[in-house]
Design goal:
By secondary structure, the chain is α/β, with parallel strands linked by helices. It is built from 19 helices and 9 strands.
């Protein structure tokens, strides 16, 4: 009864004689934040299952449902048709947001720390989070090893971002600055150009971006005192990393937005479905866009007051569903959401052809972290390696029995 009363419906269970249960089996709201994984081969119906999951969550739980589709196809349109059929067209128009990227871009203001400051986050922490998020997004497309290959460039990117927010000198770093709480990607590039022009062989530190923080100022000046060849390599490394944003017109538009039009902080208490349709973006751009969505969600859930969360009803849960999740899972941000989600009543559902995809896209640590943080694995026919068998086995089914069970599906 505990698994047929309320929650996300996952299908009818089969008894010993093969007879379906009269009611669908459900993952109750209090178990959803232990996360869900759907693993099955291509064509097994994962996208249809995600649609059913989202409909069920909207109907059975309190809180938002965020659905990310990065593979293209008809999932967003099919969800909306199903939603209108089940809940009515008025409900669809009032409670479903569909961002068909790049035609309709969500109005994130990536470099704006104002919402974090308004939520009581210390300025130094909000700035550090923004620098870390930007680094994480570039890692998504470059890969961690390539990104960190040039040791000085990634570190300098973070210090330059901190200089952009400097309360004393920030408005001088980048052209036409209006506020030290936000800036555009173009202005960040201008600050990098300022830094490059002020470097060796004829260094003019007074023309470089400045900072009142002694540590930031010292790090910037140290590079300005380096030899010309080293300095040129460092700045080239910065430009190469920033080009992943600059080269795509849609990403550039997102990162140049300074007036937020959409923020997940504003919908965390709403019964709403938000669909991010990334299928028309290039692979690299889709990864970055998904990363922007995840960082915005991470900031939204982690900045909530514990008293506010405690006041929510028992069936409250914020849900994040990701189709073809393997390329996105490699990010540290999603790892953080998986590890900390229970604390914030956040449920993550990942759909992938086979768990090893995550290892191929990222690294073994990420792959094992995903397996170990998914409390409700829903497994179809997949290739089973020893790690999956160990992670998904339980007291009633040891790894060998689990392997045999899945192979027999």
């Amino acid at each position: 009864d505990a698994f047929t009363d309320a929650g996300m419906a996952i299908g009818r269970g089969l008894g010993e004689d093969g007879t379906p249960t009269p009611k669908p089996m459900r993952i109750p709201p209090h178990l959803l934040p232990f996360h869900v994984g759907r693993f099955a081969k291509s064509g097994a119906g994962k996208s249809v299952a995600l649609i059913n999951d989202a409909l069920s969550l909207y109907d059975q739980t309190t809180g938002p449902v965020f659905l990310i589709d990065s593979k293209g196809g008809n999932l967003p349109e099919n969800y909306m048709r199903a939603h209108a059929k089940r809940f009515g067209t008025d409900d669809l128009e009032g409670n479903v947001l569909h961002f068909s990227v790049p035609d309709i871009l969500p109005g994130f203001a990536f470099f704006d720390i104002t919402p974090a400051l308004e939520d009581g986050v210390r300025r130094v922490d909000a700035i550090q989070d923004k620098a870390d998020h930007y680094e994480e997004l570039i890692k998504l497309v470059m890969g961690p090893e390539r990104y960190e290959d040039a040791i000085a460039s990634p570190t300098l990117i973070k210090y330059l971002i901190k200089a952009m927010y400097d309360e004393e000198y920030g408005l001088e770093n980048g052209h036409f600055r209006q506020d030290t709480n936000y800036f555009t990607h173009d202005q960040f590039e201008q600050a990098v150009t300022q830094f490059h022009a002020a470097g060796p062989p004829d260094s003019t530190p007074e023309d470089a971006p400045r900072a009142s923080d002694p540590q930031v100022a010292e790090k910037l000046e140290r590079h300005l005192r380096s030899n010309p060849a080293t300095f040129s390599n460092v700045v080239s490394g910065i430009s190469n990393r920033m080009d992943y944003i600059t080269a795509d017109p849609f990403l550039k538009q997102i990162f140049n937005t300074t007036e937020p039009r959409f923020d997940m902080r504003d919908v965390l208490d709403e019964d709403i479905v938000v669909i991010f349709d990334l299928g028309d973006l290039r692979s690299d751009a889709a990864k970055v866009m998904a990363g922007v969505i995840l960082t915005n969600l991470y900031d939204a859930v982690t900045e909530r007051e514990s008293t506010e969360l405690a006041a929510m009803p028992d069936d409250y849960v914020a849900n994040l569903l990701i189709d073809e999740a393997s390329s996105i899972v490699v990010s540290d941000i999603l790892n953080d959401l998986l590890e900390q989600g229970r604390e914030f009543k956040l449920s993550v559902e990942l759909a992938s052809q086979f768990p090893e995809q995550m290892e191929l896209e990222g690294d073994r640590e990420v792959y094992l972290n995903v397996l170990n943080n998914i409390g409700s694995p829903i497994v179809g026919k997949i290739a089973v390696d020893d790690e999956i068998a160990r992670a998904l086995a339980h007291e009633d089914m040891d790894p060998i029995e689990f392997r045999n069970r899945v192979r027999a599906l």
